[in-house]
Fold:
Amino acid sequence: MTERNKLKKYKKQTLLVRGGLYRSSNKETSEAIFMNSGYVFKSAEEAKALFSGELEGYLYSRYGNPTVSMFEKRLALNEGAEACYATASGMAAVFSALMSYLVKGDEVVASRALFGSCYHILNQILPRFGIVTHLIDGKDLSQWEKYITEKTKLVFFETPSNPSMEIIDIKAVSQIAHRHNALVIVDNIFASPILQRPMKFGADIVVYSGTKHIDGQGRCIGGAILSSKKHYEEFIKPFIRHTGPTLSSFNAWVFLKGLETLHYRMKIHCQNAYKVAQYLSCHPKVYKTIYPGLKTHPQYHLAKKQMTSGGSIVTFKIKGNNAFKFINALKLFDISNNLGDAKSLVTHPASTTHRIINEEKRKKLNITENMVRLSIGLENIKDLIEDIDQALKVIKN
Ligand SMILES: Cc1ncc(COP(=O)(O)O)c(C=O)c1O
Structure:
């Protein structure tokens, strides 16, 4: 029986603690960190057999490493995916997933509500390789219908999107894409591996930044690409092995520890975020609160269909020219562009994470100067609301 089949009977929380566990002959309780770049072969014949694929085993840590494999297996078991390749960052996961497939002349259709670096790849880097990208309003299914054609190699979107919290209908977009034999790649970073499983709705590939909720304590950069075995073997593995954006074993070990508690951490992140969103939505100095778990979110029902909770991120628009004043007045929240951390963080997207997108395009994405993004952590909710409350009091008008 394969390991995957052996573990199948267990619930997700159990898989997140024990999935993929490999113990060396020392029988260590916790996962070991294999800090080695190479492996020793018994004979020249064995090396030859391993390199030709006749024998299975580790060859070189750019290709694979036991600690990294444990992380890959654990994440794949949770996602219900056949395969996973861990990467050096979330952006390495996004870029490698795209470049594993694309060739000159291909077309990509993507929702334009994207993280700044993803936007840069689609808008600046892919066109340099003769790849045509259509950036559309991903909320509008008729746009997907219009732009996905026989020329489309793949579609790409984030849901919820960073930072405007747009929700894309994974099932409907996947159906349109598959009618044209286009591949569906979903950036599931905002939802985390706990709140949303895009493959259940038809996505072919899911990408993560391990840097966010998976680590959850702001320590390591990393990412992952989840797919079927066929996609992994034919496209993703050859691209990553030979271009080299692999995850370090130390970071994989940190992520393994993160996965063990992820289910429970996400519960508190979401509970706290919902309370913060409720509080902000009633505040007279707040113009608009954008949180998928609030009934006022324009796509609340779609979010409810795809996600088990609203997530850890709350975005809001403050009245007047007061975003910087509010951010600087916070005492407990740290000013940082990261998210998904145990510590609550505050970001001004227009001047940081989405600065790379010009002002006119940012406006189209609804990323205005008065927008503030909160990544809600695991602190006591009363302390968080008190901090937001005192910072809003500092604003006079
Ligand atoms: C939606 C989204 N995709 C990709 C990334 C990139 O992840 P990393 O910083 O690990 O490269 C981020 C980072 O904030 C993100 O928010």
About this structure: The chain has two domains: 3-258, 263-394.
